[in-house]
Structure formats: C-alpha cells, structure tokens
Specification:
By secondary structure, the protein is α/β, with parallel strands linked by helices. It has two domains: 9-75, no CATH class; 91-285, Aromatic compound dioxygenase (Protocatechuate 3,4-Dioxygenase, subunit A). Helix content is 24%, strand content 22%. It is built from six helices and 15 strands. The strands form four sheets. Strands 1, 2, 5, 11, 14 and 15 form a six-stranded mixed sheet that branches. A five-stranded mixed sheet has the order 4-3-8-9-10, with no helix packed on it. A hairpin with a 6-residue loop joins β8 and β9. The chain is elongated, with a radius of gyration of 23 Å. The chain starts with 8 loop residues before the first helix and ends with a strand. The relative contact order is 0.16. The structure holds benzoic acid and fe (iii) ion. Residues 73, 76, 98, 100-102, 191, 210, 243 line the site of benzoic acid.
Length: 288
C-alpha cells in the first residue's frame, strides 16, 4: 500500500499480516493494533506524548530485574492483571485475585494448626477454613501455599531482616479438607512506587496502597489452581486497592476473640494473654 492514511492504517496493518500467521496471533495482534490506532486518534496523540511513553517503557525496562518486574506492576495498576484474572475466573469457584511478585518457590511446610509468625510481634490472627469443590464437598489433601507481609509491611524478599521463608508456608488439607494456622494480622502496604509506575500513580493522583491480605495458591488433583487473597472487611483501603484485587467473596470479617484459652489443635497452645482475631475462609475449587 502506497497511500497509507490515518484512516486506513489499521486495515493496512491487517493486510500486511502473512497468510500463514497463526489465527490467534492474527486475532490478538490485529486487535492490539486496532486499539492502539484508535487510542492515538481518539486523544490526538502528540509527538511529545509519544516520546514520554517511549521513555516510560525504557525506564521500566531498565529498572526490571528478576526481583523487580515493573511491566507486571504496570499491568497491575492499570487493572489489566485483574481483568485477565476475572475473564478466566470460574463463577462456581472462589474468585481469583492478583498473584503479585512476592511469592517464593519452595515454601517451608506448615502443619495444620502451625504458626506462621514465628517470633514476630503483633495481633495474633487465627485463620481456618475448608477447601471444597463447587458442590460443597471437602477436598482432602489439597495444597495451600500461603504468604503475607511481616508487620512492617514488607515481604521477605523485600526485607534483609527477614529470612526468605518468613511468612510463607505450604499446608496440605486433612481428610476433611480443613486447613488452619496462626499468624500475625497482615497490614496494609504500598506497592513499589519509586520507579516509573510510581510516576504514573503520582500523575494520576493515585496512592500506591493495597488493603491488607493473605495470599493463597490452592491446588488439588482434578481441579483448577486457584490464586487468590483474603481481605478483612474493616481495612481502610478495601475500596481503593491500587491493583484492583478486591472481590466481594474475598472480604471476610476478622472476628475479635477474648484473651483466654486458645482453641486446641494449634501450635500456640494454652492461655493467651492478649485478645486475638479469627477468620474463617473456605476456598472453592472448580473442576479442572
Ligand atoms: C501483592 O499483593 O503482593 C502485590 C500485587 C501486585 C503488585 C504488587 C504487590
Ligand atoms: Fe500482597
């Protein structure tokens, strides 16, 4: 095509795709070009703005390492990661939510009733529930990979003071699909905002906070893996999660419990001097 115009450039792009282009590549790339072209036309994108975008992507590339993935963070704060999650969430299962960058491989085993907080101080939180199928039947021997921030709002991989496995644990449900552990109540925290994505948040008048949460990856043979989170219903950032991860069915009440005798079956045992909280959160898996 010799006469490319601002109106036909999208069709020209499609015409340039090779005949043997994989159909899915054709669909995805074609739609991407269409939306990019429509976007530029809609906002009448200037050269200066285009340059800002290129510089942003360059800085995101420069800051990205195996530990710091600025492009995923960009996807998170733009709502793309959550949208992709929701597009593939099964209605009969617990909603999925963002994985985030702080999961570690080979988490240490955590027995049912185990204590994930080790020597950390803070309000004790007792977490328990059952992994079920979509008919409500318990799933025995499901694996739950659990992680959260320390009381200082940092994940182990962000904090030199912490062992890499602190606040990470891998639990297997019992014959009745039950899981249970103690920890300290997670805190609200900010996503990394000292890079180019932080500049976008600033420019948009947005903050970098996430409501406090526990992360879970749940897997069981014959079922789809579930990547999700649980949030307390009294967190101040619940309605303004900067990565759009909150779903109604993931919001639970952390019920205050009086100091006194701790329930049996936990590593923390006997009498507890301070009040603690308890949250019950069942996890429903879709058949895979
Ligand atoms: C997280 O919840 O760990 C997280 C999610 C998205 C971006 C940064 C952190
Ligand atoms: Fe998190």
């Amino acid at each position: 095509m010799r006469n490319v115009t601002k109106d036909n450039i999208t069709d020209v792009f499609t015409a340039y795709l090779g005949d043997d282009t994989d159909p899915r590549v054709r669909e995805v790339l074609g739609a991407l070009a269409r939306h990019i072209h429509d976007f530029a036309r809609e906002v009448n994108l200037t050269h200066e703005e285009w340059q800002v975008g290129i510089e942003f992507l360059t800085r995101a590339g420069e800051i990205t390492t195996p530990e710091r993935q600025e492009f995923v963070l960009l996807s998170d704060v733009m709502g793309l990661s959550s949208l992709v999650d929701m597009l593939h969430s099964k209605p009969e299962a617990t909603s999925s939510s963002v994985l985030g960058p702080f999961h570690v491989s080979n988490p240490p085993p955590l027995a049912i009733g185990g204590d994930m907080k080790r020597d950390f101080e803070g309000e004790v939180l007792l977490v328990e529930g059952v992994v079920r199928d979509s008919d409500g039947a318990p799933i025995p021997h499901a694996e739950i990979d659990i992680w959260q921030t320390a009381p200082n709002g940092l994940y182990s991989s962000q904090d030199e003071e912490q062992d890499i496995h602190s606040f990470h644990g891998l639990m297997t449900t019992d014959e009745n699909g039950r899981y249970a552990f103690t920890t300290v109540r997670p805190v609200s925290y900010t996503v990394p905002s000292d890079g180019p994505v932080g500049d976008i948040l600033n420019a948009a008048g947005r903050h970098p906070w996430r409501p406090s949460h526990l992360h879970y990856i749940v897997s069981a043979e014959g079922y789809r893996n579930l990547v999700t989170e649980v949030f307390p219903d009294d967190d101040p950032y619940l309605d303004q999660d900067t990565v759009f991860g909150v779903r109604d069915d993931l919001v639970m009440t952390y019920v205050p419990q009086a100091a006194g005798t701790f329930p049996e079956g936990f590593e923390i045992s006997g009498s507890v001097d301070d009040a603690y909280s308890k949250v019950s959160f069942d996890l429903i898996l879709a058949k895979g």
